[in-house]
Amino acid sequence: MEEIALREMAEKLREGQIVLASLPTGYALICDARNNEPVKRLRKLKSRPKEKGFTVMVESDARLNKYVKEVPAIAWDILDSAENPLILVLPEGRGICREALASDGSIAVRMVPEGYERKFVQSANCPVACTALLNDKGELASSPADATREVLSEVEYLISLPASDPESIPTQIPIVSLGMGGEVKVIREAQA
Length: 192
What we know:
Blueprint: E1 2-3, H1 6-14, E2 18-23, E3 26-32, H2 36-46, E4 55-58, H3 61-67, H4 73-81, E5 87-90, E6 107-111, H5 115-124, E7 128-132, H6 149-154, E8 155-160, E9 175-178, E10 184-188
């Protein structure tokens, strides 16, 4: 696996590559969420059911508005007050491939408004489909070597961001589903 610089990432994603990213929140597999082929490969690698979409990382309100038909008003309050990573499931994703969305058309977004992850998403210059790298036991992989052979055979490139303080990052990022009528449903709580 070849380590690439941040400035090379956009080209690799445009080419349809799946890239292993060492993010402050852990290792993740990423690809361009607009490109159906790498997202299909990612779905197959992860054995992800059709009803589940992938998390799409965005770095700004403008990009969020671009990939969601209408952002529920409560989402802005939640995003403005969130101190830790958070994934919001919002109705009616758009501008990304169907394979990246859940079967009901919803989109899972993770706002990364600051730091290295923001630079990472800006450098990708696309909506970034993202999913955690797991080991054979279905747990978060602590290194690329922990991943299954099948996963590693699909990944040619690695990009590393500076590590964060492990104490400050939950092992599982909370997921909250929001509806246009003000509905709020906690799908997964943070786990330290």
